[in-house]
């Protein structure tokens, strides 16, 4: 028998897909903010500072920041959001019994800008198609077993 998701796991898989979609969009959005922050840091030479000497928001050399370093906050928040994203990916991988390469591919969505938005659409479609195939095969097998009982 081919290795695949169990029918008893389908409700959990569907809940995990929903959590994955939400975490994918949020993580992808913060990744874009992180890319903008990196442009400010390495392209313009300053971190984003909140309530510093330059006013409400400003760019300041990292060593000269006296207010709140928003760049560091963006880094930390994206890191934690990525942890939740990979956790959703891991649970989905475990329940659906994907290959490990598919797990790694989905995990890249929180690292490569814009990939998470693409995967947020692709992965649920793939999972739902796989679940539908398994459900229809199980229904056909149940119908075949019922017709055998009736003829016997």
Automatic annotation (TrEMBL):
Main subcellular location: membrane
Keywords for this protein: Cell membrane, Membrane, Transmembrane, Transmembrane helix
Membrane topology: Multi-pass membrane protein
Keyword Membrane: yes
Chain coiled-coil ranges: none
Subcellular location: Cell membrane
Keyword Acyltransferase on entry: no
TM region positions: 20-44, 64-88, 100-119
Pfam families hit by this protein: DUF3817
Domain DUF3817: 18-123
Name of the protein described by the UniProt record: Integral membrane protein
Organism: Rhodoglobus vestalii
């Amino acid at each position: 028998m081919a290795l695949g998701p169990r029918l008893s796991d389908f409700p959990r898989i569907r809940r995990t897909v929903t959590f994955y979609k939400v975490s994918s969009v949020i993580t992808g959005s913060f990744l874009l903010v992180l890319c903008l922050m990196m442009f400010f840091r390495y392209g313009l030479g300053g971190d984003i500072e909140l309530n510093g000497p330059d006013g409400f928001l400003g760019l300041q050399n990292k060593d000269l920041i006296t207010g709140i370093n928003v760049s560091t906050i963006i880094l930390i928040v994206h890191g934690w959001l990525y942890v939740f994203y990979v956790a959703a990916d891991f649970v989905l991988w475990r329940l659906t019994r994907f290959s490990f390469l598919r797990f790694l591919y989905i995990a890249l969505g929180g690292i490569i800008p814009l990939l998470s938005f693409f995967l947020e659409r692709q992965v649920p479609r793939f999972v739902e198609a796989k679940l539908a195939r398994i459900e229809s095969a199980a229904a056909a097998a149940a119908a075949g077993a019922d017709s055998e009982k009736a003829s016997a």
